[in-house]
Amino acid sequence: MKNSPIFVVFFAFFTLATIVVPVPMFPGNMIYTWFGTLSTSYGFYISAILNGITYGLVAWIVYVLASKKIEKSTSEELVGEEKKTKA
Q1: Tens-place pLDDT, residues 9-35
Q2: Is the peptide bond before 5 cis (omega within 30 degrees of 0)?
Q3: How far is the first Cα of the chain from the last one, in angstroms, to the nearest whole number?
Q4: Which residues constitute the domain of residue 37?
Q5: Which residues have a Cβ under 8 Å from the Cβ of 59 and sit 6 or more positions away?
């Protein structure tokens, strides 16, 4: 639950970036390839939401893995310091 703001921030950032900057970004640009040319006006927004979800999940996974690694190394350092003070 504490990691969910990371996903929300990156989802919003990449969704808005896709809408504001009219450059096709992967994987959102694949929507047009998979379904043919979307002639509807909301096809661009579907592409933006797909980009937001994809890059939000990638950023969230990287954050979770990095925080677990940092937490593990910090706890190992604390255990090592406790052993030194007891000896």
Answers
A1: 999 999 998 888 877 778 777 777 776
A2: no
A3: 39
A4: 4-86
A5: 6, 7, 10
Rounded distance between C-alpha atoms, residue 60 and residue 14, angstroms: 13
Cα 11 to Cα 43: distance, rounded to the nearest angstrom: 18
User: Do residues 20 and 52 touch, judged by C-beta distance below 8 A?
Assistant: no
Structure-derived torsion over alpha carbons of residues 21, 15, 25, 51, reported in degrees to the nearest 10: 180
| pTM of the shown model | 0.73
Query: How many structural domains does the chain have?
Result: 1
Report how far apart, in Å, the C-alpha atoms of 61 and of each of 6, 39, 78 are: 10, 34, 26
